[in-house]
Protein: Succinate dehydrogenase/fumarate reductase iron-sulfur subunit
Organism: Euzebyella saccharophila
Amino acid sequence: MSNMNLTLKIWRQKDSKSKGKMVDYKVSDISEHMSFLEMMDVLNEQLINKGEDPVAFDHDCREGICGMCSMFINGEAHGPDRGVTTCQLHMRMFKDGDTITIEPFRAKAFPVMKDLVVDRSSFDRIQHAGGYISVNTSGNTQDANALPIAKEAADKAMDAATCIGCGACVATCKNASAMLFVGAKVSQYALLPQGQVEATERVQNMVKQMDLEGFGNCTNTGACEVECPKGISLETIARMNREYLTASIKG
Ligand code: SF4
Ligand code: FES
């Protein structure tokens, strides 16, 4: 396949106070082997050479681990491929002459800071509210490996722990619900003995913080699961709801 010429329609917004708008750009000679972010680098180099402001976007690891690359591409979080983040999306998913729309992840709890960069510190505050365990480090601490854990529980906890906090679930959900993210974080601990000590407060505090941050309610559309780059299952939401109910009964 020969290289591609593309039209990009990109959300430009100076800062959190300004009104944004879509702006058209052309990029040419884009290889199908490039990642989506490399294509964005080509555009930014072009803009810098012309003395224009490059498009601000978040990125860090560029290998699907950090969860920073939050782009809404052609109406989908992380673009048209499945099970990938934007940095893992390849230009071979597009064809010569395509127009690609690129927007930030949109949610009340993720305010736009500039262009495609959103503030996801609401996720951090949910984590701080309960996404941890306390360990006695007095010197008599039990070796974690001395605790036998059923293989199924260990596997499911590990699956939940693969959530990278990217926010695609929120951006995809018509209610901007964060239930898949919080479900993953609660499940990660609920399945392990180390998570039992603080289980009651954890689920209550994390759900409380989620509501305070302005995330919407879950209406079981399942869109989050489809767009999650890490394949986090809706089962985690069901587990969180069970944990929440148990915590409410316990008081
Ligand atoms: S649940 Fe999936 S989509 Fe949501 S933050 Fe975690 S990895 Fe991203
Ligand atoms: S840049 Fe780290 S997940 Fe995409």
Summary: The chain has two domains: 4-114, 121-250. The chain has a mean pLDDT of 96.
